[in-house]
Amino acid sequence: MKKMSKPERSWVFYDWANSAYSIVVVTAIFPLYFKSAATAAGISAATSTAYWGYANSFATLIVSILAPLLGTIADFRGFKKRFFTFFACLGIVFTLILAVVPTEQWLILLICFVLTSIGFAGANIFYDAFLVDVTSEDRMNRISANGFALGYIGSTIPFILSIAIIILAQKGVIPLSVGIASQIAFVITALWWGLFTMPMLKNVEQMYYEERVPNPVSASFKKLFTTLKNIKAYRALFLFLLAYFFYIDGVHTIFTMATAYGSDIGIDSTTLLIVLFVTQVIAAPFTVLFGKLGQRFNEKRMIMVGILMYIFICIYAYFLKTAIDFWVLALLVGTVQGGVQALSRAYFAKLVPKQSSNEFFGFYNIFGKFAAIAGPVLVGATAQITGNTNSGVFSLVILFVIGGVLLLRVPKHGGVATDQSISNTTH
């Protein structure tokens, strides 16, 4: 593979920037911080896990509602980067605010998390759509996979700094409480995210667009209806989105609920943080490997491999009891998580007309984000009903089974390309 261009490198680097948020705030430190605050307020472990799931679901609902309309507006010249910048700043600012909210205010903490999550997810809509602007179709698998891989590597740096401060605080080596150490971690994350977003803002531009019209909002609603019509007309695209709706729900849910799950089965916070760090390290080379295998065997086949692995992971989670079991589970997730996400993004980017990439990626994200509402609610509700988080994770099997069956029905890439060419002539 030839050397990456400046726009490709800058685009890939945003994964390096925002993945720190994914591991520190979504997966590792903030869930433990929130659960500690909730426990101090007299809330049970299962109930606080449910609240965590509901908060994730509410954030994804907001993004899902906004995604299609913002996506269609962003296809007009100059809007894509503006929307990307707004949502990235929203996420960064409220990540900083997490560091100053008192731990007694657990509900305000959860509200601030929802706002950071909206910023993170909203920025990703336009970041994903920029893939068509920075590279050619034959390089999308590798560039998308490199982004996820670099994200896993880059996220370990602020993560190591954060867990080092927290562990030193726990052991009394530094005169800080664990709560304050966690707040410092949120500051580190926000600064990291902001600093390494700069190359994206400086070097990536919207290459494919439609010219502005006098009333872009009204025009976007009309384009939105056209998009709905197009999605229904093209069997490959529609089936892929349906499959993606189900299997990515399971992927996102396992990611967002992992730390709460480990905490509920008795894994101590230090072990959880170390496991998550090792998982990030493992995920990077496996994501690159998935990108190369996707190039060789096609994206659909490798995504299916990932789905089958996730089904096994959910079954294994049902019987999980010890810290060693959790280690095995986390490492298995690390081998497939980045690969499934990277190949899904690249595969979809090949299906859509480039000049309407935001429009279609708005639907890609609404299918992905709206789907992510069901998974955390499913885990949370099952945990409350059964009093057992293991059963909640096991219930995600149904999402992967449905997603896999639908994916098998998606026509081969050649048929998809034909649909795309038709879409270009009708748009």
From TrEMBL:
GO cellular component entries: plasma membrane
Gene Ontology molecular function, alphabetical: transmembrane transporter activity
Major facilitator superfamily (MFS) profile domain span: 236-427
Subcellular location per the Swiss-Prot or TrEMBL entry: Cell membrane
Cross-referenced InterPro entries: Atg22-like, ATG22/LtaA_families, MFS_dom, MFS_trans_sf
Keyword line: Membrane, Transmembrane, Transmembrane helix, Transport
Pfam families noted in UniProt: ATG22 (PF11700)
Protein's UniProt name: MFS transporter
